[in-house]
Batch of 2 targets.
Target 1
Amino acid sequence: MQIIKRIAVLGAAGALAFALSGCAGNAGNADKSGDDAGASSSTGLDLGISMPQKTSENWVEAEKYFNDLCKSEGLKCSVQFANNGVSEQQNQIDTMLTNGAKALIIGAIDGTSLGNQVQKAADAGVPVIAYDRLLMATENVDYYVAYDNFGVGVKQGEALLKGLEAKKPGGPWTIEVVAGSNDDSNSAKFFDGAMSVLQPEIDAGKVTIGSGQNTQAQAATQGWDPKNAQSRMDAILAQNYPGDKVPDGILSPNDTLARAVLSSCEQAGKTLPVVTGQDSEIESLKWIMQGKQYSTISKPTKPLVESVVALAQKLLKGEKDVKDLNGIAVDDKQYDNTKKVVPAFLLPPVVATKDNAAEVYKDEPTKLEAVNSVK
Ligand code: BGC
């Protein structure tokens, strides 16, 4: 409840900050409300917005921002979360199409599992935009809007090295690595980005992965579930770090998993390693300011939601081959989903640590409040 209240404040504070092009009257929808009621109404849906489980705070924030923006833009939207898994998400998208959705925005639980749904969309001439997570192995995805996921991983790898250097100047350092869920195509980008920075240090003998578990498959966290990351770290510590031995650092792909592995170390009575994260979750911002977690990544949800809705509005107006989205040029090289290279609009992630948090979150009142709450 606390989170939801805080997000409401954030949303209200930022509501004037972004003016979308072609708003009222777009596709003749100026008179429709943006309530999350589309799935139960029978016709006239503008946007079907299908989201995964709420495995991190960014998804909770997205729900609020999508609903607010749909309302202010006069778009009739159905915003659905599939908390019960893949088949629920499939059913929700089917229903959105039955209800006449004119465009789909999809953040997939499993990027490979929605082939039938996006085929139906293509057959009906409904454009599909992948949101935050790419849809894999299908031609029926028109665009991808996300933060630069490989860039997120690079920044995590760099932050880890910086934190290690500050903790134990000159090294060498022993680390462990954690990856996200294998069914989320972002996980490979995060992991590969981070390893592009860490591998040269491993090859040079400066960094060692203590457990030897150095592949994404070994490091994966099914369902992005912190319980899975914590129990894996419990086992790694028990097997590889007897007595007061402890890894110097842990690469974690997001904040929920960062807190899970830190809890694992804490419960094993270890001194805390340098741990990275992502998402700027409120609890992690406090941990960063307390010196428990080292870093996170700022990738604010609001501009991402605004960007994807702006793109959907262009498509609803019949625009084709969009090359620029609010000043972001299309990336038509990086996101090969095995069936096509999906044109992507990528927002820039920013790394945050204790040193720069007040600056990074200066325009996000709720996050700034968390940063300033720790004296
Ligand atoms: C998102 C991350 C998030 C993770 C778990 C990823 O696809 O990009 O921001 O932490 O899912 O929800």
Target 2
Amino acid sequence: MTTLHTDLFIDGTWSPAASGARFAVENPATGVQIATVANGDAHDAQRAIDTAAATQPSWAATAPRFRSEILYRAHRLILDRADDLARIMTTEMGKPLAEAAGEVAYAAEFFRWFAEEAVRIGGDHTTTGDGASRILVTKEPVGPCVLITPWNFPLAMGTRKIGPAVAAGCTMVFKPAELTPLTALALADILAEAGLPPGVLNIVTTDTPGPVVSTWMDSGLARKISFTGSTEVGKLLLRQAAENVMRSSMELGGNAPFIVCADADITGAVDGLMVAKMRNMGEACTAANRVFVHRSVIDEFGAALTERMSALVVGDGSTQGTQVGPLVEAKARDKVQQLVTDAVAGGATVLCGGATPDGPGYFYPPTVLTGVRPDAALMHTEIFGPVAPLIPFDDEDEMVTLANDTPWGLVGYLYTRDIDRALRLSAAIEVGMVGLNTGLVSNPAAPFGGVKQSGLGREGGRVGIEEFLETKYLSIPR
Ligand code: NAD
């Protein structure tokens, strides 16, 4: 049974903020407050990082199999409580229950993946070129880590960081997004039940992240920051990390191109875009932001897409049958409307959607735009909403130039049946991940991450645990 926790989780115990302050969490489908949560400050943050630092030596000394078993148990508990976790997520951030259930399965899998990785941490043994010395390379946990997550995947963004940190033997201070603290606290409860020792994971919730996170970054005790969120905040944290030369993993924003070539399977491409665009109501770093379609197929593609988008059921995510929930808050919804209004003023045509409905809730309808100019604001901004702008192209090289005309480089999607074109374009687009004839790239077994201003490092896959390990080498004369 899932208990709804609303206090700080430090040293294995639940406690209110030292100041007694709390902040409200609301349901974006109704605008109604659902809970209040402890509002931590610098004082609570200091207690959390002191605990993490004090726990680090004993945690690092645990056996890999011990840490692995904790993750296996937590994986099972997440699946056992899937319905409760899905409902908490839907209530605090709006995604439909079916999607929330999908995220629970995805999130749990990170724990299973890293349970398997925990016992495979290796090293290396070689000799120097002159044969005079042995080189013994070992791996050690980096040390106490600062984890910060966004609101859009409240469970999976947590497990994607906590999984490898536990596997590697790092302690943690964790600040979840202020819009979705309840999911993170439910996850802490599960880890404690799975046997995670007190002090390994410490959570401070707050609606004022600056002082809490700065306390950790300036403490001299944290050895690493792992951040998922906007590029703007990521840059701020990198500046803070520089002061103490902290290891930094940054999973930042995206501006994904979705490319439909003349030879593409059009039905498959529409299916793929429905996932790449509409997963999480478009509130994903991986969301297709710009849809480049070859001019010879754009009418056929646009008509099929508009039919699918107009048929989607928009509503409260907790209602059976809802396919598109509300956006996370009024500010997010208003930004999407502003981007659409700006594109239309620049000459774009609305094929469906395009207007904010009356409240309550922060709903925005699935929207398809055509004739979007390359200089429109939504071509250069993360839309973070259910809006698909279609841009025709004739020449492949010109399209690639436009696709790369962004400071971001997280993911790109490519639909073609020509293997040469697929390999050529995959190499030409400046991204960390390519979905070739698929609209979904996220998987715990794959190295997730971007190039350019989309971030540093990778999460998941074989390399995921490396982000939480330090390399040490011993020189031994033969
Ligand atoms: P955000 O950057 O506003 O917030 C992310 C986290 O940073 C939150 O926990 C927030 O409280 C915290 N934060 C905000 N200001 C801070 C400060 N001054 N100091 C320390 N921490 C601070 O992002 P968001 O709106 O929560 O999430 C959306 C963004 O996240 C989008 O840009 C999206 O692309 C990105 N994202 C990236 C990935 C990825 O894997 N690359 C995944 C999901 C989301």
